[in-house]
């Protein structure tokens, strides 16, 4: 089969590879759509030691099984028997695997193999491109659920207008938070969100100095955005931290302590969160989900380069194996 293979920093090659290994009980998904994630970009730039080359990246996948089922893929595979898995927190399984990290190849290919429980049927009302958004949006669904359980409420601030931030904003609305502000530094991205998603994002400079948000979602995760979250959350408020941009700096620990601010690190999603996200998408509770740009998988290297250059307005590029080059 054909696949886009990561061979080293900023080096992706579209070439023939062996078909996916099908372990006992696994099912093959013939991929129709696969989204480029921020973690794929980190690996592409050589910043993710968990994804050593050569490797097929990509974990935001939808497609068709050998039996003809239209599915989206939960890429996170737990052991099923540990305390985390048994308690419904399979995203914290110490033996978890995810496609696009060894030993599992990813979804920038014509096919991938996964256990049946990781394949979620999608309704005919969802296109494959829309269904590929289930994985990143599920990250927001999980974060919002945890933040609300910790007492987070409106008004809410979302930092970052990429797919994770946009998904988090949509999940906030779907879960009953009715006053949401999203900040995004790129003028091009803010204009795109206004035209295609109905979100009037702001530049961070437009925020008031007075902390006024009961719930803040950091969908970027760098020192500057953590500092922004620390300064704009109200006393007694909640910060949900999804972004994995950098590991250190930014949090005002003294203010968080004196003002009893709750900080929650949120990693991916549980299987239940993933299924709840797909259900909400199918019911139309997360909007039109048409804020993607589609390109052939064969031109994936150029897509990564364009994202790197900051020339992509849409929050998400979807790569499609069946789309001919030049389309």
TrEMBL record:
Entry's Gene Ontology molecular function annotations: oxidoreductase activity
Keywords on record: Oxidoreductase
Q: Where is the Alcohol dehydrogenase-like N-terminal domain?
A: 27-124
One Pfam family named in its UniProt record: ADH_N
InterPro entries annotated for this entry?
ADH-like_C, ADH-like_N, GroES-like_sf, NAD(P)-bd_dom_sf, Zn_alcohol_dh
Question: What sequence ranges are listed for the domain Alcohol dehydrogenase-like C-terminal?
Answer: 164-280
| Name of this protein | Threonine dehydrogenase
Q: Which organism is it from?
A: Palleronia pelagia
């Amino acid at each position: 089969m054909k696949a886009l293979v990561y061979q080293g920093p900023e080096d992706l090659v579209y070439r023939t590879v062996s078909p996916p290994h099908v372990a006992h009980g696994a099912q093959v998904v013939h991929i129709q759509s696969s989204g480029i994630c921020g973690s794929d970009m980190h690996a592409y730039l050589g910043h993710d030691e968990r994804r050593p080359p050569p490797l097929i990246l990509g974990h935001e996948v939808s497609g068709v099984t050998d039996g003809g089922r239209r599915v989206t893929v939960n890429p996170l595979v737990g052991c099923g028997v540990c305390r985390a898995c048994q308690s419904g927190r399979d995203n914290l399984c110490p033996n978890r695997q995810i496609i696009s990290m060894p030993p599992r190849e990813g979804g920038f290919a014509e096919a991938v193999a996964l256990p049946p429980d990781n394949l979620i049927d999608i309704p005919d009302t969802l296109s494959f491109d829309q269904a590929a958004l289930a994985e990143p949006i599920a990250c927001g669904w999980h974060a919002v659920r945890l933040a609300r359980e910790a007492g987070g409420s409106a008004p809410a601030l979302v930092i970052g207008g990429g797919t994770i931030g946009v998904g988090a904003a949509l999940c906030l609305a779907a879960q009953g938070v009715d006053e949401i502000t999203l900040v995004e530094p790129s003028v091009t991205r803010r204009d795109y969100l206004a035209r295609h998603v109905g979100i009037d994002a702001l530049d961070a400079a437009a925020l008031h100095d007075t902390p006024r948000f009961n719930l803040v979602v950091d969908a970027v995760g760098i020192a500057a955005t953590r500092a922004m979250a620390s300064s704009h959350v109200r006393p007694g408020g909640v910060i949900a931290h999804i972004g994995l941009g950098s590991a250190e700096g930014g949090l005002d620990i003294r203010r968080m302590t004196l003002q009893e601010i709750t900080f929650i690190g949120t990693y991916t999603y549980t299987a239940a969160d993933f299924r709840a996200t797909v259900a909400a998408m199918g019911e139309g509770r997360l909007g039109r989900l048409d804020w993607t740009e589609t390109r052939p998988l064969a031109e994936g290297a150029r897509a990564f380069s364009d994202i790197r250059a900051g020339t992509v307005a849409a929050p998400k590029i979807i790569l499609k194996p069946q789309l001919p080059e030049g389309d």
